Amino acid sequence: MPKKSKLPAWAPKEGGDAFAGKVIPGSLSSKGRKSGKKTPRRPRLTVDDYVKGVLACNRAIMGRAISLIESDAAAHITEAQEMLQALLPHTGKSMRVGITGVPGAGKSTLIEALGLYLLTAGHKVAVLAVDPTSSITGGSIMGDKTRMEKLAREDNAFIRPSPSGGALGGVARKTRETMLICEAAGFDTILVETVGVGQSEIAVRSMVDFFLLLQIAGGGDELQGIKKGVIEIADTVFVNKADGDNISRAKVARQELSRALHYLSPATEGWQPKAYTCSAQSGDGVEKLWQVVETFQETTTNSGVFQQRRKEQSREWMHALINEYLTTIFLKNPAVGAKLKQVESDVVAGQLPVTAGARELLAAFMKNREDEE
Ligand SMILES: Nc1nc2c(ncn2[C@@H]2O[C@H](COP(=O)(O)OP(=O)(O)OP(=O)(O)O)[C@@H](O)[C@H]2O)c(=O)[nH]1
Ligand SMILES: [Mg+2]
After folding, report:
1. Residue where a domain stops, chosen among 246, 281, 303
2. In this structure, are 198 and 345 located in the same domain?
């Protein structure tokens, strides 16, 4: 049957046949799909399909499961949570390692070297990233997959760039949930790269078991990390690029860092962080790094600190999500929206005490919610 075409609503009535603007039902319409016509769209997966695919380590399905997690659409969030619920018993059995350091410190190069080393030792390695700037730059720290070219080609490695867009809280949630997908798919080592600027290190520290700070010797500023407090949350510090002419400078930096670490209270109870040198480029020190991670895992598992931290992380994460959710619905509330600007400017002008301002907005919010019910 020939398809009927109809004029679009905005077409001039007297346009006649000379008017070319016609809407012709396309083969991609929902009707077309229902009648079984082939379309370029991928078939929808059920929650069960996702779960089975992830458990079988089917990469295409893993990718789609992660996209589902990264979606902000309400329906996807519900579906993603159902999927995670089913996968939960298969998660948690990995070593989660966070890696931070200033841009250009060599994190990606180190992850490639460490990842390849771990593969030869029989591990399955997933590499994730937390880069809250990726929405601005359009790429991500893992946009440079080229730094991990060899690793990316390996069957037992899985590399996923940072989720882009949104506030750090959202990016961190997505990375955490992606980590669970990777664990359920059988990856036993998760490496999370984050750039050492802003708050992203704190977010990554709160989702990993072991946190590595990668430093570089440079410009007499060996204690770059100390100023930012990053060193205080690290379980070890490696001074990278200890190769060529740079070896002696790297050693000096290592000594300074060792002294500093000695005076700080450890990030993990019962574990004294130490400083070492390495070269991600030559591979020197990579084996040592993994020895440190393994010793850490053994020590903290025996003392119970490892398991305790994981529990604490889940509890804190839940509270962070509650805070995030409450803030979102508060700021979206029309009664709050109607008052917010005025109250803000009164507070800023010193005409309204800050506490009174906050209480006024909260009261407007509560009242609006009650009226809605
Ligand atoms: N000489 C030397 N150069 C290195 C070493 N590790 C990394 N580099 C170089 O340093 C530059 C930055 O390396 P990346 O691995 O991209 O650094 P990054 O910390 O991941 O950088 P961002 O992702 O941008 O924060 C590259 O040109 C690397 O080749 C090393 O051990 N020795
Ligand atoms: Mg990088």
Report:
1. 303
2. no
Residue 109 CA from chain centroid, whole number: 19
Please give the residue range of the domain that contains residue 194. Answer: 91-303
| 75 membership: H or E segment, kind and range | helix 74-87
Match 């730094």 to its residue by tokens: 147
249 lines ligand 1 (CB under 6 A): no
Residue 318 sits in the same domain as residue 296: no
- 149 Cβ inside 6 Å of ligand 1: no
pLDDT in tens, 74-115: 899 999 999 999 999 999 999 999 999 888 899 999 999 999
- Going by alpha carbons, the residue nearest to atom 23 of ligand 1 is 141
The CA-CA-CA angle for residues 191, 48, 92, to 5°, reads 30
Q: For atom 9 of ligand 1, which residue has the closest CA?
A: 106
Same domain, 69 and 217: no
55 and 175, same domain (yes or no): no
Measured distance CA(87)–CA(92) in Å, rounded? 10
Are 157 and 248 in the same domain?
Answer: yes
148 Cα–ligand 2 center, Å = 9
Same domain, 210 and 231: yes
User: 69 and 99 share a domain?
Assistant: no
- How close is the Cα of 106 to the center of ligand 2, in Å? 7
Closest CA to 155 of 221, 78, 58, 81: 58
Which bound ligand lies closest to the C-alpha atom of 105? 1
- Do 59 and 183 belong to one domain? no
Q: How many CB atoms lie within 10 A of CB 320?
A: 15
Q: How many domains does the chain have?
A: 3
- Is the pTM here over 0.90, yes or no? no
d(CA 286, CA 200): 24
Has residue 329 been placed in a domain? yes
Pocket test for ligand 1, best of 100, 107, 109, 148 (most atoms within 8 A of CB): 109
Which own/partner pairs from 34-43 qualify as long-range (CB within 8 Å, at least 24 positions apart)? none
Which amino acid residue places its CA nearest to atom 7 of ligand 1? 106
Does the beta carbon of 132 sit less than 6 angstroms from any atom of ligand 1? Answer: no
- pLDDT grade for 343, boundaries at 50, 70 and 90: very high
